[in-house]
Amino acid sequence: MDLRVELILPELYQTLIVLILFVFAMVGRAKQVSAVRWVPWLAAFGIPVALAVLGSEGEMFLGAYRVDALSQFFKFAVAVGFAVAVLNATRQPTLDESNRNDYFLFLALSALGLMFLSSAVELITIYLAMEMASYSLYTLIPLRSQERQAAEAGIKYILFGAAATAIALYGLSYIVAAQHTTYLSDLAHTDWSWAERPVAVLGLALFLAGFFYKLALFPFHFWAPDVYQGASNETATYVSTLPKLGAVIILIRLTALVSPEAEITTILAVLAAISMTYGNLAALAQKDIKRILGYSTVAHAGYVLVGLVAVTREGLAAAAFYALVYVFMNLTCFWVICRVAADGRNLELEDLNGLHKRAPGLALVLAVGAFALVGFPPTAGFMGKLFLLTAAWDRGYNWLVILAAINTAISLYYYLSMVIHAYTKDEPESPPASQPEPGFSLFWGILLAVAVLLLGMFPRPVFDLALSAAATILP
Questions:
Q1: I need a surface site. Which of 35, 380, 406, 453 has the fewest CB within 10 A?
Q2: How far apart are CA 248 and CA 177, in angstroms?
Q3: 180-224: pLDDT as tens digits
Q4: Phi and psi dihedrals of 119, rounded to 5?
Q5: DSSP secondary structure, 126-179, as one string
């Protein structure tokens, strides 16, 4: 077995976290031992571990597992997102105390699956890694005490996820039948035109559908608003961020197989246009903040595809960069939601009224996150969209770039509604019970907001890293 331990340190460390949490899950109920206090420290240490192996390269397991700049970029993003998600979930009011060790175990398992997905370069390996990352979420979503909506959200996610998985597996069989290989390195040298290989094109479209579901791209989006609303605030934080990274890296690897003129690229462009427009228009009618962010996810999935349809080094790098900044933007907004709703309830826009008076720091953090999601300078959202639109311009999809700009203008209304309610509306008579602002809540919230601003003001180091990562699969 061609195993090189030094290349897979992030995976090995994440596996160690999983094993430790497994032990706690087994013995914790009997001995009343909880892992809540020290899990954030373990997760945080995973960030320097992932950072230490940036730039490593090599192949293992007969070429099915590749460590390259692209995989290490996304493993670092997963490590950062996992650390923030775990920290956010330490104060979860709707989770039974007896389930806390299990909850963190499944979070860690999902993140481990995403790390495996980052390096998978063979279709069956990709499929298995996707399932590993997904099955953990099937368990997490219903974990919300005395909430029937959580059970409904869990059932929807399982059923729709099973259907999307079946479609992806069916597509994989078509690809194998037409191209006679499951290795991406071999598939890159095969024909993907409808005229020559219609079965292969159909198979690729079906296989991509499984990742469209994870990304919440139209028409595989319908689960997102309901699942976000039904799951606990902390679980929705994770579901809305890290699984998107896994979907984006596979979409990057698969779209690199085809040319900008290929039929499958045109399909991606059309889906991107519909997803952006539908997501933004549907969000305008929402009052529940998590449903707003659910439809926002649908719109942002379309934005990511704008970079992918360019099928250039800059376009793929822009998609990778935007996936990273989207994680930070969404984590920033959800951090405030989890702090404001200290009792775990779902927030509506009116619940933000007067937030600048009772928690001015959190109101500021929310404003930064909302402005970034819109794409205002100098936030990371602005630079991310600028990279995406620049990469797609003059690549045959100028109409898509113009539509993306129009959709950005549409999104102004519902993102700024959150800021307007926080800063200009009178405080309600019975505001939701918020966690105390000083200390823990405010410090980490401001740190996330600063990260969003720094990625916007100094994007070059990270974008250059994304460019070098894209160059490994598309010179």
A1: 406
A2: 25
A3: 888 887 887 777 777 777 888 888 888 888 888 888 888 887 788
A4: -105, -5
A5: HHHHHHHHHHHHHHHTT--TT-HHHHHHHHHHHHHHHHHHHHHHHHHHHHHHHH
| H/E stretch holding 87 | helix 69-89
User: DSSP letter at 55?
Assistant: T
pLDDT of residue 145: 65
pTM exceeding the 0.85 threshold for the entire prediction? yes
Sign of CA dihedral 193, 199, 202, 206: negative
Give residue-wise pLDDT tens across range 220-273: 877 888 888 888 888 888 888 888 888 888 888 888 777 766 777 888 888 889
Q: How far apart are CA 177 and CA 172, in angstroms?
A: 9
Q: Residue ranges per domain, the chain? A: 5-471
Closest listed residue to residue 344, CA positions, set 54, 156, 104, 145: 145
Q: Could you write out the DSSP letters of every residue in 358-371?
A: H-HHHHHHHHHHHH
The C-alpha R_g of the chain, in whole angstroms, comes to 21
Query: Around Cβ 347, how many Cβ atoms within 10 Å?
Result: 20
Burial 3-28 (b: 16+ CB within 10 A, else e): eeeebbbbbebbbebbebbeebbeeb
Question: Helices H, strands E: what count in the chain?
Answer: 20, 2
Helix (H, G, I), strand (E, B) or coil at 108: helix
- How do residues 302-349 score in pLDDT, each as one tens digit? 888 888 888 788 888 888 899 889 988 999 988 888 888 877 777 887
H or E element: which one contains 411? Answer: helix 398-424
CB 242 within 8 A of CB 78: yes
Which pair of tokens denotes residue 104?
């963190």
Among positive and negative, which fits the CA dihedral 18, 21, 27, 29? negative
| Residue whose token pair is 């309610």 | 421
Rounded distance between C-alpha atoms, residue 217 and residue 257, angstroms: 20
Whose tokens are 């160690």? That residue is 16
- The answer to whether the Cα torsion of 353, 356, 359, 361 is positive or negative is positive
